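Student: Hello, beginner here. Can you help me understand the protein record under this note? Any guidance would be welcome.
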Amino acid sequence: MRARDWPWPAHAGMAQVRHDMNSRWRVSKTQPGTRAVNMIVAELEGLVGLGMKGQALRLVRRHFRGDSIDPDSFCAGLNAILTVVDGLKPWRPLVEAAYQKLSKRGKRQSRYMMLYFYCSLHDYKAAYHFLPRRFVGPMSAADLMFALDTLLALGRLEEAKPVVRKAVNALDSLGNVEGRAMLVSSIAEYLSEVHAWEPAIRLWEGLQKDSLMAESAIFGLLNLHLHRIRQTIRSARDSLKHLRHNPDPEIEIVLPGNDAARWRSTGVQLDRIERWVNRALAAFDSRTGGSSASITHDD
């Protein structure tokens, strides 16, 4: 299970993600003319911090439905939604309408919050439009994690390469244990996708006892090994095809048809294992909304 598949409120470690998000929108509180905005932001922070979900969401609705909105209060409102709401889909029209009310500069300042929002909705096509064109400058652990998750979900492995490099370089400088663990898991997932099995295994095995990332590590390892089995089955079928077309003439003279029966029996056993693996991968797909194509082969 990937980090992107978690429900937001269910994981205490997501506080690190929310901390990263909060730092995104604390940009204009000291500027003149923002007193009203600061009051809205401060009120939302207070309500969320006290666990007053209903009051916080009523304030978000009222503010988002207003005629205009600034990036600070928009990001504060979206942060409140991501923090306390379990089902985000009903909030999508309101969030998108509020985002359209922002100025061009305000939209730029709110880009990463919208990336977090669409990733949490598992709408990676929408999330992709909020990725930076170039991954330069400072990026938080949450920025890198959601960027990687988006690119991997869309199969854009080449575009993910510079993000992975930046993520690897950022690991040593991350002081927060939870943020580092999340980023390590995303790096492991990339390595698994490109079939760099062994380093992915080492990274995930190091997270299996981590209270935040245990699920991601356990299911990531299981998914990895199932895909390795599929790759082995594919290789085995190629070997069987070669053996069928290149029989040992000496064995054929002594035991005619013996090798053909062996390869046929082996193929039947591979079919059985293949069906089991495909059922197991289908179970993963039902959890994550992914797709694992079945193995195709020539008899």
